[in-house]
Hints:
By secondary structure, this protein is an alpha/beta fold. The chain is built from 25 helices and 25 strands. β21 and β22 (690-695) form a beta hairpin. α2 packs parallel to α4 (105-116) and α6 runs antiparallel to α7 (185-192). The model is unreliable at 1-40 and 90-97 (pLDDT under 50).
Amino acid sequence: MNSPTQTCRPTVIGWLIAILAIGSVGKSVQAYQGELPAEARAGYIIKVPMPIVGNRDAEVGQQLRRLSEAAKSGNLQRPIVVLQFQSIAPSQGPTDELGSRGSQFERCLALARIITDRENANLRIVAYLADTVEGHAVLAALACQEIYAKPGVQFGRAAIDSEADATVLAAYQDMVSRGRTNIPMSAVTAMLTPNTELVRVTTTNADGTQVVTLAESIRLKDEGLLSSTEKVWNGQGLAVFSVEKMRSWLWISPTLESPQELGGMLGVEGGLRTVQQLPREWKAASIRIDGKLDRQRTNQIIRSINESTESKGMNLLVFVFESAQCDFEEATRLASAIGDLREKVYTAGYVESSLSGPICLVATSCNETVLIGNATLGPDLDAPKLLSDGVTEQRVLSHIASFSQRPLPLLITLIDKDAQATIYTHQVSQKRELFTPGQVARQVDRDNWVPKNTVAGGAEISQEVSLQFGLVNAVENSTAVGLNRLGLETIPEPLSSPWLDASIERILAQSWVPRLLLTIGLMALMIELGNPGISLGGLVAGLCFLGYFWIEGLNGNVEWLEILLFIGGLFALAVELFVLPGFGIFGITGLFMVFISLVLAGQTFVWPATSTEVTVLASNLFWVAFLGFAAMVGLLMMHKKLEQLPMFSWLSLKPGGIDEIEELDARESVVSYDYLVGNVGTTKTRLNPSGKAQFGDDIVSVVGSGGLINEGTPVQVVEVRGNLVIVEEYS
């Protein structure tokens, strides 16, 4: 028999082994949790545009399917998905009726089924109401597991577009019965059925506090179960509730100013991402933008981007910004070029040091903008004032805000140091919006908007404000951490231009090159006008003008208008030279069209809208006129010299020898048209005012003494001055 000591010894040893094993397992678990990838608690945002029509339900479903497949493959650990319900239709009035109405019931039901599908059970899907939700978009929001909302928005009036029938009521009943939200069916019924009065009651039985219809509250009262009552909806029309009231009744989750705040509340690492940021097989390149971004550099970046995306199949471009600057025109050109890539290329901008002024528009035009370290965005306080309320600036900024989904008020404060972005509250609906004073002044109900607090203007925009209002997507400690959001470990290889392209750019970057080509082209054109025909002058002029338009095209100034004007002007000149000789309407019109096309080729606009553009137009007018005048003076001064040069001897016809010269002088000395005085002939061409006329068998050059004389008109010689024959119309 074993002694007590012997019996206890293995037991103690077993417990020690168990404790050590548990400790090692705990350490292993802790180590494993520390090594989880950033995607483990990733959050993604999917925008649900309202009204929900067409294939918008399928587009949202496709993005949910991609996230679900990524979660099943082990790349994601039950990611949080925020469906942001946002109106894209124009709104009128404080309740945004037209902005949220019009959703199709079939499409909303299909989206609700996608959200609640078992295939998406590995996703935590929540709704964020960025705008008032009315119509059947209510059904899609009810399908989400939680509902968050922006302060001031409203929720309800589900049957505002059409009367709810039994099928519609059954669909809403089914969605509420799933218990995914705390909104009671009685409230949903009031949203579908007009004139349904709701009462919040407290009963003495186990049901406690609940929201019921007025008829149900009367029944409870008659049964003696009613303890207290509170009117929730007065029954006037379809029920609609403010999110503040819904939150006080615990129907929805807390209200938040932005989905970025929601990401922080839900414990999302690195902020909310888009589905496009799912790790995949990237074909990536990077572009570092630092120093002064001039026209040459902008053109080089745009051409390199277009070439890489078209020929190399690039699908990811990483922009790294460090102490970069540029003017408004170059910033908007590059921002628009980046925006045009959105359909086929994902762009990510990493701001490694604070940016100020228009260059911020380039950074925020990317699909994803990340601030690194303490970097911020803000206006350039040392730059001249740029009027953000100008027609051109407002149109350009609205375009950038539209495709980049950035807040327009904050974009305005980035380029206008005197502008301020302020949160305004609507006195009627209590809706809150971010506006600049200029935007409020353009609202139909501007008197109802009351300013509350200014969030940006006249200084750098804090990282918190940039995140809260969606000016940027995330703030990270380093670029490497930011790249992890895309599944990248290092910055991709730089995007470089071919050496030939770079060499040509260096040559063509000299401003005197296009002006020299323009001067030579104008001089050659004058030679051609002086000696009509297909000659070297016309060829040289064509080549010079072609080079001029090519250079300006590389600078982004030439479009179809300039080309059509130039070709049309040459055609009018050709008509004047070869079809209708003289210097009439075609000649004047042709020269004017050529002149205007050359002026427009030196600028990016047609008609100036700002003081800067007026200055550019005046400069272009001066340079084209000056170069044309210089070409004419140079031609007059060099004409005789050119004829003496062997290589240009062909410009003038020279007799073959001395005998021919003497014979020519003799022939020209005996030529006399005095015998034609008083003779009557017929014009062979239009006299405009000069032309040809036939007198008997002789065809001579004549000049009309009055206005234009058409071809085939009888004329009489009234005077002869040497070789000059003057005629007038004979009657």
